[in-house]
């Protein structure tokens, strides 16, 4: 990313009470997360290809953190409980579908547990995205979320809304829809609650 755009992005997020940190590689972001989160803390982890690549749930669990990651649930009840418990954790770690240089974090979500935790509940939130998620404007970020992220996420999760075949959103009303929740984080009322980690790699959708 050009340094001008980087400065602009950092400034715009700061105005919205979100601190930005840049990393060259995913493992550096992972080390930073481990440093920030105390061993005694509970951690919720959102379903994200980026976080799966980072293996952050496994790393935190191995060193003793209590981790609530729905993807580690074995039964429907366990998954539901992990989703619920993750809403009351000390920290929540999640990916996102797009961010804008103007300072937005744009998310599409199926059941809504991930965006719920981003908005309220966990004391602190870390959002991890690859550089490929950076868009210039809010409009570009929304387009990315609907036309790039949604079809790929739907395919990954085994759903088949129209965008999977068309590779673009047609604002469907399908029962297979993956974007029942379309949420833009505009900022934080509380300083230091949310951090955005941007990794200089193409990761996730
Ligand atoms: S509204 Fe339907 S077509 Fe559009 S992104 Fe969502 S699931 Fe895909």
Automatic annotation (TrEMBL):
Top-rank taxon, per record = Bacteria
LUD domain location: 7-199
Q: Where is the signal peptide?
A: none
* One Pfam family, short name: LUD_dom
Question: Mind telling me which InterPro entries this protein's record contains?
Answer: FTHF_cligase-like_sf, LUD_dom
Q: Which Gene3D superfamilies match?
A: NagB/RpiA/CoA transferase-like
What's the protein name? Lactate utilization protein
Q: Which organism is this protein's natural source? A: Anaeromonas frigoriresistens
């Amino acid at each position: 990313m050009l340094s001008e755009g980087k400065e602009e992005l950092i400034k715009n997020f700061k105005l919205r009470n979100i601190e930005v940190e840049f990393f060259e590689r995913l493992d550096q972001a992972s080390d930073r997360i481990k440093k920030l989160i105390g061993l005694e803390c509970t951690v919720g982890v959102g379903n994200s290809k980026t976080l799966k690549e980072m293996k952050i749930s496994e790393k935190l669990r191995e060193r003793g953190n209590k981790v609530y990651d729905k993807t580690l649930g074995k039964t429907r009840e366990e998954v539901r409980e992990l989703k619920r418990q993750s809403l009351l954790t000390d920290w929540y770690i999640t990916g996102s579908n797009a961010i804008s240089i103007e300072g937005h974090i744009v998310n599409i979500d199926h059941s809504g547990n991930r965006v719920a935790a981003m908005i309220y509940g966990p004391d602190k939130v870390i959002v991890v995205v690859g550089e490929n998620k950076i868009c210039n404007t809010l409009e570009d970020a929304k387009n990315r979320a609907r036309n790039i992220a949604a079809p790929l996420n739907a395919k990954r999760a085994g759903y088949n809304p129209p965008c999977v075949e068309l590779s673009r959103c047609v604002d469907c009303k399908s029962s297979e829809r993956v974007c029942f929740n379309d949420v833009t984080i505009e900022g934080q009322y509380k300083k230091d609650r949310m951090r955005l980690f941007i990794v200089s790699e193409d990761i996730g959708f």
